[in-house]
Amino acid sequence: MRRAVLLALLVAGCSSTSERGRYYKDDGPGTRVPDLASIPEPAPRHEPLHRWANRPYERFGKTYVPLTRVGAFQQRGVASWYGRRFHGNPTSSGEPYDMYKMSAAHPILPIPSFARVTNLSNGRSVVVRINDRGPFHSDRIIDLSYAAAYKLGYVNAGSTRVLVEQLVPGGVARTSY
Q1: Considering just the CA atoms, what is the radius of gyration of the chain in Å?
Q2: What is the pLDDT of residues 9-58, one digit of tens each?
Q3: pTM for this entry
Q4: CA-to-CA distance for 40 and 127, rounded, in angstroms?
């Protein structure tokens, strides 16, 4: 039974909280949490797109076709977050995941790229760097780092409704997706 539960959690993808907002047994903040309010947001800049992370791929029987250029993109949906269970593991970009940086996983936004994520329930907004793929659930559109979720005010809730807008260095391009 314990193996079945563990397998179900692993298959569930990047989300790190239960539906009731509690942390999974081995997730949540680390033992030495930095001052999360002082973690800086990344400044959008031109970066070459990752050679392999932007190719079409399949997860759980669904095919994803990542965008291959930074441009106008806007999407509304549910955000979740991922934390200690993934801290230090490689992201799709090959960089180690750092739950205390302002980063995110998105199924199709270019890697790397930058996005503004706004919590629709409280109006808080942050800039994140997209460097990973996920979440792979039909009810979620983005997984944010623990630090980003903290700044958006939904760490304890586990998820929230958000607006994701891709940022274009030198300006913000907006369109519906």
Answers
A1: 15
A2: 333 444 444 333 444 445 666 667 788 999 999 999 999 999 999 999 99
A3: 0.81
A4: 9
